[in-house]
Design a protein that fits this description.
The chain is an all-alpha fold. Helix content is 74%, strand content 0%. Helix 2 packs across helix 3 (30-37). The longest helix is centred in the middle third of the chain and has 22 residues, at 78-99. This is HTH cro/C1-type domain-containing protein. InterPro entries: Cro/C1-type_HTH, Lambda_DNA-bd_dom_sf. One of its GO terms (molecular function) is DNA binding.
Length: 136
C-alpha cells in the first residue's frame, strides 16, 4: 500500500473526517488534497510535517506509513489509533483554552444553560466559524 493510500485510509477510518475538514487544517483546497490522497500529486518532503500534524498521526505510525509497504494497521488497531487521536485533540483544545481564557469562559457559560438553549447557541457559533474560517 502506497503512502498516499494510507493517508486517505487514515483520514476516512481513523479521523473519520471529510476531505474538506483536513484540507482546511492543511490550508489547501479540497481538490489539491484529493490529488495528494489519490496519488495524482506528489507530497514533498517539506509537506510531510504538515500532513503528520493535520492528520494527528503518532510519530511511530507515521514512520511506518512512510517506510513500510504493509497495510496501515500492521502494528496497531483502529481503536487504539482513534484513542490516541482523541488524546491529541484534547491536548490541542486544552492548549487553546489556556491561550484564550475567553474560550473557557464561553464554554463554561454554555454549560450552565438548559441543553436546548446551549445547543442553539453552539449551532450559531458553528455557523459563525464556518463563515469566517477562510478569512486571512
Amino acid at each position: 500500500m502506497h503512502f498516499h493510500e494510507k493517508l486517505k485510509k487514515y483520514r476516512e477510518e481513523i479521523l473519520q473526517l471529510p476531505q474538506k475538514e483536513v484540507a482546511f487544517r492543511l490550508k489547501l483546497s479540497q481538490s489539491a488534497l484529493s490529488k495528494y490522497e489519490n496519488g495524482r500529486a506528489q507530497i514533498t518532503a517539506d509537506m510531510l510535517k504538515d500532513f503528520k500534524a493535520a492528520y494527528e498521526i503518532p510519530s511511530d505510525l507515521f514512520a511506518e506509513m512512510l517506510f513500510e509497504s504493509s497495510d496501515l494497521y500492521s502494528s496497531t488497531t483502529p481503536e487504539v489509533l482513534r484513542e490516541k487521536l482523541k488524546e491529541a485533540e484534547l491536548q490541542r483544545v486544552e492548549k487553546m483554552v489556556e491561550e484564550y481564557p475567553e474560550i473557557k469562559k464561553m464554554i463554561t457559560n454554555l454549560s450552565y444553560l438548559p441543553k436546548a438553549e446551549s445547543r442553539k447557541k453552539v449551532k450559531v457559533l458553528f455557523r459563525i466559524f464556518e463563515a469566517i474560517k477562510d478569512l486571512k
